[in-house]
Design goal:
The protein has five helices and five strands; from the N terminus they run βαβαβαβαβα. With 123 residues, the protein is of the alpha/beta class. Helix 2 runs parallel beside helix 3. The chain has one domain: Rossmann fold, CATH 3.40.50.2300.
């Protein structure tokens, strides 16, 4: 059975590309387009990994991360930030709130994203 990934990104083109890459690698990928959508999806479905954008129109990725990590069932799911924003304070805050990694979208190749996901999932 394919591992399930929740991909959270308000940029539809970016989300579509990453969704396609991860699906081709054998993952079942659900996309949420904002923070509230991510929280709802995480509460209603089980995911093996959440890839979370930092800047979204409704909530910051760090705020979504804090909410997800406060939910007992969801708190065990690894969350990696997948974002274009690399400000030191955002990175530190995300890692402090429980993110397992901070991946920069503009620096990662599709192959490296798949490798990183496999690494996080222990595959």
């Amino acid at each position: 059975m394919a591992k399930k990934i929740l991909l959270v990104d308000d940029e539809s083109d970016t989300a579509a590309v990453f969704q396609t890459v991860l699906k081709q690698a054998g993952y079942d990928v659900t996309v949420a387009v904002n923070g509230q959508g991510a929280i709802s999806a995480a509460k209603t479905g089980y995911y093996d990994l959440i890839l979370l954008d930092q800047m979204m129109p409704d909530l910051s990725g760090n705020d979504v991360l804090q909410i997800l990590k406060s939910e007992p069932v969801i708190s065990k799911v690894p969350v990696a930030m997948l974002t274009n924003f690399s400000h030191d304070e955002l990175v530190t805050e995300a890692l402090g709130r429980g993110a397992v990694d901070y991946i920069l979208k503009y620096q990662i190749s599709h192959e490296d994203l798949v490798k990183k996901v496999k690494e996080i999932l222990g595959e």
